[in-house]
Amino acid sequence: MLAVFDKSVAKSPDALVPQNESVCALKDGFLASHFSSVHPGSVIVNLASSGFLTYSSHKQNPILPRLFGVVDDIFCLFEGHIENVAHLKQQYGLNKTANEVIIVIEAYRTLRDRGPYPADQVVRDIQGKFAFILFDSASNVAFIASDADGSVPFFWGTDAEGHLVLSTDGEVAKKGCGKSFAPFPKGIVVVLCNACIYVLKSSLYH
Question: Does pTM top 0.85 for this prediction?
Answer without folding.
Answer: yes
